[in-house]
What we know:
6 strands, alpha/beta, six-stranded mixed sheet, Rossmann fold
Amino acid sequence: MKLLIVRHGATEWSLTGQHTGKTDIPLTELGVKQAGLARRAAVRLVGDELETAAVFTSPLQRARKTAEAVMARPNSEFTVTENLLEYDYGQYEGLTPGQIRELRPGWDIWRDGCPGGESPEDVGARAHAFIKQVEQEDRLVVAFAHGHIIRILGACAVGLPAAQGQIFTLDTATLSVIEDVRGKRVIKTWNLDPRLVR
């Protein structure tokens, strides 16, 4: 397995720290610029494999538009999958962590999940389903998704419980690579800022 994962570029809510699950908001101008830089970084990371990769994306426009910029091809060539949707934040959609803790002191998304939405285990089930899809491919897979689902995907891919996604940080428009190396699944690159790639 070789999986390149790209988090979408910045949105208004990612800049303010609001939980953005199913709300389908667009990239900001910054997000569009970030996606362009992510293309250059992806080419540096995987070279010519990018041109023949199987591409999967969340159905939400922030992921799809990032995919279009990075892959430099129309989204009609991508497989849209709900397995890459962001964590369903339920009643906490649009709120910042601080606002949620005012309503529910001590709240921790990795332990408590979201009322009316998902738990880490729910998102983990989707991550495992996506990993099974990736394992069927005999070429590079590129996935475009969102912060929490990618963190959980990273944990699940290397055999950790979904809630251990909490140990991974992830910024907008960053690139991560999970790959089988000498019989072991490893995180080869994580949270690579495309501005650092020359």
